[in-house]
Amino acid sequence: MQLIRHYFPGLSDFQVDQLAQLKSLYTEWNQKINVVSRKDIESLYLHHVLHSLAIAKVIKFADGTYVLDVGTGGGFPGIPLAILFPETQFTLIDSIGKKIKVVTEVSSALGLQNVEGRHVRVQDVKERFDFVVSRAVTALPDFMAMVKGRIRKEQINHLQNGVLYLKGGEVENELNTINYHNHVYYLSNFFKEPFFETKLLIHLF
Fold it and tell me: Which end of the chain has fewer beta carbons closer than 10 Å to its terminal beta carbon, N or C?
């Protein structure tokens, strides 16, 4: 939690309390349903929470924004972002039902009114959203094909509606194969920990 408070000093006491509860909630649920690797649970705030919140270094979602988190797993990046942006509506989807059970239970325990968990594939989601977020669920060309048609045209944020994709390593070859405008953010510019040296956030629009 010290890491989170260091990089996000403007959090309210209520948000700090919600974020602080994540460790015990995920430790408890991970013993029943493995949504975070065993070794990663000890580094939950660095590897999962802070990584998810990198999106908040690029955009402050306007009130009334709708965000779709594809392949959310146990709720990343959606749940940390939902804590940060209580007036933004987050729909977290995953094709594995037991992972959505964790999303639902963790959201309920935190009192998050702006999170909906759905056991569904993105191809079966009919609504449109301002942004689609995800953490490296597949290669970028495949992901963009999956989410095609899910982005609303109406703008309410300063950042162009589109996809915010957290990924590691080289992306140039993948970006060259897709016909989208893009901007690549290096997370090492936001966070100084070695974990982020090879981590990227890609905005596609």
Answer: N
